[in-house]
Amino acid sequence: MSKSVPAFLQDESDDRETDTASEGSYQLSRHKKSPSSLTNLSSSSGMTSLSSVSGSVMSVYSGDFGNLEVKGNIQFAIDYVDSLKELHVFVAQCKDLAAADIKKQRSDPYVKTYLLPDKGKMGKKKTLVAKKTLNPVYNEILRYKIDRQILKTQKLNLSVWHRDTFKRNSFLGEVELDLETWDWDNKQNKQLKWYPLKRKTAPVAFEAENRGEMKLALQYVPEPMPGKKLPTTGEVHIWVKECLDLPLLRGSHLNSFVKCTILPDTSRKSRQKTRAVGKTTNPVFNHTMVYDGFRPEDLTEACVELTVWDHYKLSNQFLGGLRIGFGTGKSYGTEVDWMDSTSEEVALWEKMVNSPNTWIEATLPLRMLLIAKISK
Fold this sequence. Notes:
- By secondary structure, the chain is mainly beta.
- 6% of the residues lie in helices and 40% in strands.
- It has three helices and 25 strands.
- The strands form seven sheets. A five-stranded mixed β-sheet has the order 3-20-16-15-25, covered by helices on one side. A five-stranded mixed β-sheet has the order 6-13-12-9-10, with no helix packed on it.
- The radius of gyration is 22 Å and the shape is globular.
């Protein structure tokens, strides 16, 4: 029994996706999907067959890191407006940026901001793109609707990017401010200041924090319909049982749910969600998700990404996640950032692959993830 995901579980930028989630009082819900970039569905027979997905891996992340020199400065100011309950980021200008077009010594830069640790689409704001300049002037205010108490748990990340004519992005540098210790009453902190741009840094501080644990079980079913003459592809069953000791980002409030994607497929079709469970740091979901279209060789190329979110008003705050696979760093011959499973995550995947038709249970620590970009 299932319904469409209620509006409060959807990201604003999800274009009214139609993933399904359990809404009733049933303890165990079961959903079945085929990752679209893992499978081709025959319209005549309904049979599932696997196709090459090496091309889809290239679009998972939206930018190139390390291809251009990081140099220059950015001028901005921040302020919290109590009457509006908004954080205002005034992006004034940049100077002496790196040139993406070496020959003509120019770039097409824009500034992007995030509130960390929620580095999902809900937390992203952008300026307009300035054309053909290394010293862009923006004078734009980027606004975040957020309570002051929650703001104290965040970091503000500003990054500068070059966007080329094919809408590909190249990283030009970033600045990060810790808002936990920011003095909002200091008038000097509301003045425009210049900050040197820095290279991309891994989110070590958040990685080290305790993000709680997830209790789950996986099962690989090689032949869901045994006895059929025609060859069938297998299924991966993911049973999300519960989470333990989730962090509180909003004081004592928590309304958590789990989202699942089978990478390299980042399309909305492959994504599934549990229902949201409120008022507890130890939510019980008992939600089973089923993905079909798996040949044995695909188990070495795919990765199960499970992410835990705290829903608050119109936005979702990222709490932590898992990436369960072989952690080889590659998928279908292409190097990818998301094939980065920890030793514990790899051990669970290996046991599942080596013990077909058997539930393999584990309790794994949640960790910080750079979330893959969702494609249409």
